[in-house]
Amino acid sequence: MSQEPVMSESLYIGECPVCHHGRQVVRKLRGKEGFIIRCEECESEWASPAMASDASAAVLGRYDSDRLANRDDLKGHSWVEYVVNWDEL
Amino acid sequence: MATVDLLSAGLGAFGLFGGPPSAMLPQLASLGGRTLTAAQQARLWQSILAGASSVSEAIAVGDLVMMSSSTGSTISQSSGGGSSSSGGNDELDWSIKSSDGETRVDHVTLHSVNDLQKKLHGVFYGNPVEVIKEAWRIKRASNLKPINAGGNVDIYVIPRANAGYQGGYAGQGQNLDNVVIITQKGTRNLITGYPAGAGN
């Protein structure tokens, strides 16, 4: 281990059912209201947390402009209950 | 692109016989200035024989792409750039960018350092890009097939000793002897690659 570890701070709802290696991160769409879920590793996407445990419901490349959501973005939103690390960040 | 014409190399005529004369084996072993494995030599020889037919075909042989037809056969050394998934080579295409502009090199480089926010995070011992390219060559040589886990991606679990170690908050630094390469389904368009154990 030649480098110091990093701590990537992302709001996430679980582990990806497709690749089993990345977290399912909440991302905010740019230029419009709304959020999506995307695996930080394999980039599989879901339109909502309710379907995000289903690998077969994943899509790829449907959303082309977004960024990591932060607490301010998501405060008061119904998706907060899905976020695993809401109280940690 | 360097090319070697099989007919001018004196190999095309061997299609009339059952196999290559022993005197020509050294040429088969190093055609195009590249060293071929025994398996690649066997495939190459089969393709030379198949070249007597009228069926045109392209067969990837390691880093060599062989074109054979009724008029003869040529071997072309691939450019190695992998810039297009529709070209004749079989290299990974690294051109995808994430919605936030992250390149594939940026993405796989995240696996050069541990990430303790993730449960598991494979960390490469060496240069991620080079190890992934090497793993893809192994995949091609072994004709390894992908796993499709239900999404729109293909997942290749490629044996590659000492690829990296298991990081993340649940990782215990154990050695990882596989490289996972994930591509867009049915393409060579790289999404990510990372070291992994046999189970992931």
What is the mean pLDDT of chain B?
69
Shape of chain B: globular
- The helix/strand order of chain A is EEEEEEH
Largest interface: A-B, 35 and 34 residues
Total DSSP E strands of chain B = 8
Question: What would you call the shape of chain A?
Answer: globular
Oligomer: heterodimer
Question: How many domains make up the 3D coordinates of chain B?
Answer: 2
Structural class of chain B, by secondary structure, is alpha+beta
The SS-based structural class of chain A is mainly beta
Helix fraction bin of chain A: under 10%
Structural domain tally of chain A: 1
Q: Radius of gyration of chain B over alpha carbons?
A: 20 Å
Q: What is the H/E string of chain B? A: EHHEEEHEHEEE
Uncertain residue segments of chain A: none
What secondary-structure arrangement, pairings included, does this model have?
The complex is a heterodimer of chains A (89) and B (200).
Chain A: E1 12-15, E2 23-29, E3 35-39, E4 44-46, E5 59-60, E6 66-68, H1 71-74
Chain B: E1 3-5, H1 25-29, H2 38-50, E2 57-61, E3 64-69, E4 72-77, H3 104-109, E5 121-124, H4 128-142, E6 153-167, E7 175-184, E8 190-196
Antiparallel strand pairs in B: 1-4, 2-3, 3-4, 5-6, 6-7, 7-8
Describe, in plain words, how this protein is organized in 3D.
The complex is a heterodimer of chains A (89) and B (200). Chain A contains one helix and six strands. Chain A is mainly beta and 89 residues long. Chain A has one domain. The radius of gyration of chain A is 13 Å and the shape is globular. The N and C termini of chain A lie far apart (26 Å). The model of chain A has no long low-confidence stretch (mean pLDDT 90). Chain B has four helices and eight strands; from the N terminus they run E-H-H-E-E-E-H-E-H-E-E-E. By secondary structure, chain B is an alpha+beta fold. In chain B, the strands form two sheets. In chain B, strands 1-4-3-2 form a four-stranded antiparallel sheet, covered by helices on one side. The longest helix of chain B has 15 residues, at 128-142. Chain B is 20% helix and 28% strand. Classes of the chains: A mainly beta (89), B alpha+beta (200).
